[in-house]
Amino acid sequence: MAKLSLFDRRRRRVRTALRSVSSGKPRLSVHRSQQHIYAQVIDDKDGKTLAAASTLDKDLKDKGNATREGAAAVGKAIAERAKKAGVSAVVFDRGGFLFHGRVKALADAAREGGLEF
């Protein structure tokens, strides 16, 4: 068996913990790259994406790509789109990313936008 990177070990640990506490809630999954940040609300029962937002969206492109301001704009947008899809409570899946900087800014903005987690 190949040795997993620290990132992959963190991601597995986070996902395993989420499965035990999710109780059927959709998952707010975050991916952070060097240039952009992406967020999706995923229903794992049906395997469907209910809402998505990223700094690549046309209305969010001018907010700043690799900045906290851009991440906050994505957080507000994902909260708005999730509400429109009928989702008010989610579990936050940070993947293997540490909860600070852009990931924390996105989470705080999503909470301010009305998502509960």
Give your account of this protein's structure:
The structure is a single chain. Helix content is 38%, strand content 20%. It has 117 residues and is an alpha+beta fold. It has a single domain, classed as 2-Layer Sandwich (Nucleotidyltransferase, domain 5). A four-stranded mixed sheet has the order 3-2-1-4. Helix 2 (68-84) runs parallel beside helix 3. It starts with 5 loop residues before the first helix and ends in a 5-residue tail after the last helix.
Q: Which characteristics define this entry?
A:
single chain; Nucleotidyltransferase, domain 5; 4-stranded mixed β-sheet; alpha+beta; globular; 117 residues
Task: Give the end-to-end Cα distance, rounded to a whole number of Å.
Answer: 35 Å
Overall, the morphology is globular
Overall pLDDT metric: 94
Order of helices and strands: HEEEHEH
- Whole-angstrom Rg: 14 Å
What is the helical fraction, as a range of percent? 25-40%
CATH topology: Nucleotidyltransferase, domain 5
How many helices? The count is: 3
Low-pLDDT runs of 5+ residues are none
How many domain units? 1
Biggest sheet record: 4 strands, mixed
State the CATH architecture: 2-Layer Sandwich
Number of DSSP strand runs:
4
The level 1 CATH classification is Alpha Beta
GO cellular component, one term: cytosolic large ribosomal subunit
Family: Belongs to the universal ribosomal protein uL18 family.
Keywords: Ribonucleoprotein, Ribosomal protein, RNA-binding, rRNA-binding
Function: This is one of the proteins that bind and probably mediate the attachment of the 5S RNA into the large ribosomal subunit, where it forms part of the central protuberance.
